[in-house]
Amino acid sequence: MHCENCKVELDETMLFCWSCGAPIKQNEASKNGEDTASDIKTAVETKNELDAQHETKTTHTEPLKMAVEQDREKDVQTKTTSANETKMKVGPSEMTSNATDMETNSHEHTVAHTANVETADVDSEQQAAQQVAATSDRAHSHHAANFSDQVKDTFLQATERINRMVGEEGQIDLNLRDVFSDIFKKHSKEEAEKLFITGTELTTPKEKDISTSWPKPWLFARIFVVFAITYLLLSISAYTFDNIYAIPGLIVIGSFAVPFSLLIFFWETNAPRNISIYEIAKMFFIGGAASLVTTLILYSVFPVGAELTYGGAIVVGIVEEVGKLVIIAYFIYNQNSKYILNGLLIGAAIGAGFAAFESAGYAFAFGMFYGDSVMTEVIFLRAWLAIGTHTVWSAIAGAALVYVKGNKQLSSDTFVNAKFIQLFAIPVILHAVWDMPLYALHNFNLLFIILIVIAWIFIFTLMNAGLKQIGRLHRDA
Question: Domain segments of the chain: what residues?
Answer without folding.
Answer: 28-131, 166-476
